[in-house]
């Protein structure tokens, strides 16, 4: 499986997580919590867009990339976990605190699904751009934890 396929799967995962944040925002008990969850959803969509840009760059300059560092199985596992969580939310089987706890687990587990750790990058400036994404996911974990404390 090529690097392009790995990146496409990572984009799918980011989009699923964005959708989960958006649904969680609709369940928020306050406008502040809802706004924060909507912001997180937007940031996940931004991550997907950056991955798309990386995929386009990879198509034009494959020499800037090395080997995939994440397996197809690991990505499929993340996608399945996100799809399962999304289904439970849509079926109203989870309350917001449970959703946030699940999101914390997902963000923590799949923090490395960003281009700088997803695939080996040879180009230093491109590498720095995508390293920022992992920092944002660490920030997401902190923000989710604060939101969870706020609503409990």
Automatic annotation (TrEMBL):
InterPro entries: Ferritin-like (IPR012347), Ferritin-like_SF (IPR009078). This is Rubrerythrin diiron-binding domain-containing protein. It comes from Candidatus Saccharicenans subterraneus.
């Amino acid at each position: 499986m090529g690097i392009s396929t790995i990146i496409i799967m990572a984009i799918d995962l980011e989009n699923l997580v964005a959708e989960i944040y958006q649904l969680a925002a609709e369940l928020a008990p306050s406008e502040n919590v809802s706004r924060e969850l909507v912001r997180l959803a937007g940031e996940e969509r931004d991550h997907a867009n950056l991955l798309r840009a990386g995929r386009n760059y990879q198509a034009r300059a494959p020499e800037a990339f090395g080997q995939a560092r994440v397996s197809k199985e690991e990505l499929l596992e993340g996608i399945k976990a996100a799809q399962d969580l999304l289904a439970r939310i849509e079926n109203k089987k989870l309350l917001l605190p449970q959703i946030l706890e699940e999101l914390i687990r997902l963000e923590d587990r799949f923090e490395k699904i960003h281009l700088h750790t997803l695939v080996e990058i040879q180009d230093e400036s491109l590498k720095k751009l995508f390293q920022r994404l992992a920092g944002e996911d660490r920030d997401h974990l902190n923000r989710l934890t604060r939101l969870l404390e706020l609503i409990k």
